[in-house]
Design goal:
It is a single chain. It is built from seven helices and four strands. The chain has about 160 residues and is of the alpha+beta class. The protein folds into two domains: about 60 residues; about 80 residues, Glutaredoxin (3-Layer(aba) Sandwich). Helix 1 runs antiparallel to helix 2. The relative contact order is 0.13. The structure holds FE2/S2 (inorganic) cluster. FE2/S2 (inorganic) cluster binds next to helix 5.
Length: about 160
């Protein structure tokens, strides 16, 4: 059933006048995610072939758009890797998150529930070090509050 739905999505977007336009690619990825719950790299590559785009373009879009995900994780934590957060224990906060989440090379925690990624400056430097969890800013983090946050999200 999923295969059939995916084929329909690929065919629909491939037939658009400009299927490689970014807004069309993102709309296609959103529809795929509605069907599968996420956009695994292999499916993004299939979608890319269907519209004549490079697979890396689609997998990059999945990573860039916070509403898209490549695996069926439930929570996303973004640790700031900017200089100001770095000067205030940002690296220690990140290490504390890793300690609890134990992310694999794809950034997903061992139990598959939390994606950990970094961003160079969350544009909230005055409250550094900062972490975003599911789009909510957690200011003035410490390694201990980072561990607590990670443990909470791992269990939710
Ligand atoms: S450096 Fe972290 S919010 Fe700017």
């Amino acid at each position: 059933m999923n295969e059939e739905q995916l084929s329909e999505i690929f065919d629909y977007y491939a037939a658009l006048p400009d299927p490689r336009r970014q807004e069309n690619l993102v709309a296609m990825l959103r529809e795929i995610q509605d069907v599968l719950g996420c956009v695994p790299d292999g499916v993004a590559a299939q979608a890319a072939r269907a519209v004549g785009e490079k697979p890396v373009v689609l997998t990059s879009l999945v990573r860039r758009f916070s509403t898209l995900k490549s695996a069926a994780w439930s929570h996303r934590i973004t640790a700031c890797s900017g200089a100001r957060c770095g000067a205030r224990q940002g690296a220690e906060v990140y290490r504390a998150l890793c300690e609890v989440l134990r992310p694999g090379p794809d950034g997903v925690s061992e139990n598959g529930r939390v994606l950990l990624c970094t961003q160079n400056c969350l544009k909230q430097c005055r409250t550094s070090p900062n972490v975003l969890a599911d789009g909510v800013l957690h200011p003035h983090m410490t390694p201990e509050s980072a561990r607590e946050l990670a443990r909470k999200l791992l269990e939710e």
